[in-house]
Design goal:
This protein is an alpha/beta fold. The protein has eight helices and ten strands. Helix 3 (about 115-125) links the parallel strand 5 (about 105-110) and strand 6 (about 130-135). The longest helix is centred in the last third of the chain and has 17 residues, at about 195-215.
């Protein structure tokens, strides 16, 4: 596996950090597919290295970036100047994949906040040139009731002070049943618990948009959720799948928490995802 770092300036002139992991060129002349990974709230692309290792061993490359206000990218922690700019990250990653490997199929993969973003991308964009889309634990509905005061404050501040920051109120113990994963999450200096009014309200709006506008899909979609997710709602994912028309696959993982790719059953999750990708190639 080979690793490279790259980046770009966002529409708000924020330095965006990105990285790629590619299969060993001695084993695979060119990747048989590329996955674009869009991470969740408060985390960063580096937390998907193990996912990249799995897929690179199968001959599939991975590109990912740290969103504005996350990881090694610039901006205030948890802040995106305009939430819709999250879609621009996908455009940039896709352009980079196409530049490197013009004829290689590309899949979109988003988790949690990233899951809501990728589903919005395929619903809002018409000609996207992707082979398929995967969303895990997508932020369509929250699994807990957010503070009404915090939401009201966020909506109010969004208009006058969009970078106003609050704690995201996420219970870190809901990330995974694996205590080592939770400890690594807590100890990770690039993980944070901040969210600004623009980011928070944008996240909620994107979830609502996806559920209200899902219909005929223009590409194959795989949505997966842990049944015991305490952060984003499995019911929201089920609702999306029920409303969708076309090539939609729903997989609910019994007993798994929020990060299904970081649960003790992660090998099963990766194998299932790989088999789905293989079926679309």
């Amino acid at each position: 596996m080979t690793h490279q770092e790259f980046g770009w300036d966002s529409p708000s002139k924020v330095k965006i950090y990105a990285q790629s992991w590619m299969p060993d060129s001695k084993k695979f002349k060119t990747p048989k597919a590329i996955i674009l990974v869009i991470h969740g709230l408060g985390e960063h692309s580096g937390r998907y290295k193990h996912l990249a290792e799995y897929f690179c061993a199968k001959g599939i490359g991975v590109l990912a970036n740290d969103r504005s206000g996350h990881g090694k990218s610039g901006a205030k922690k948890g802040h995106i100047a305009k939430y819709a700019q999250t879609l621009d990250d996908i455009v940039k990653l896709h352009s980079e994949a196409s530049r490197r490997f013009p004829n290689t199929p590309v899949f979109l993969y988003g988790h949690s906040m990233g899951g809501g973003i990728v589903l919005n991308y395929i619903l809002r964009k018409k000609k996207i040139g992707l082979k398929g889309c995967i969303a895990t634990g997508p932020a369509l509905k929250l699994a807990f009731e957010p503070s009404k005061f915090m939401v009201s404050l966020g909506k109010f501040m969004r208009g006058i002070w969009p970078s106003f920051s609050q704690n995201n109120e996420l219970d870190v113990n809901q990330v995974s049943r694996d205590k080592a994963v939770v400890k690594a999450y807590v100890d990770d200096p690039l993980v944070h618990s901040k969210i600004t009014s623009e980011t928070g309200i944008g996240l909620l709006e994107f979830g609502k948009y996806a559920l209200e506008n899902v219909g005929k899909l223009n590409l194959p979609v795989l949505v997966m959720h842990g049944s015991s997710d305490g952060l984003t709602s499995p019911e929201g994912t089920k609702e999306f799948a029920q409303k969708a028309e076309g090539d939609i696959t729903l997989k609910i993982w019994d007993g798994l928490y929020h990060e299904i790719h970081n649960e003790p059953e992660q090998q099963e999750v990766f194998d299932y995802t790989y088999q789905w990708i293989q079926s679309k190639l």
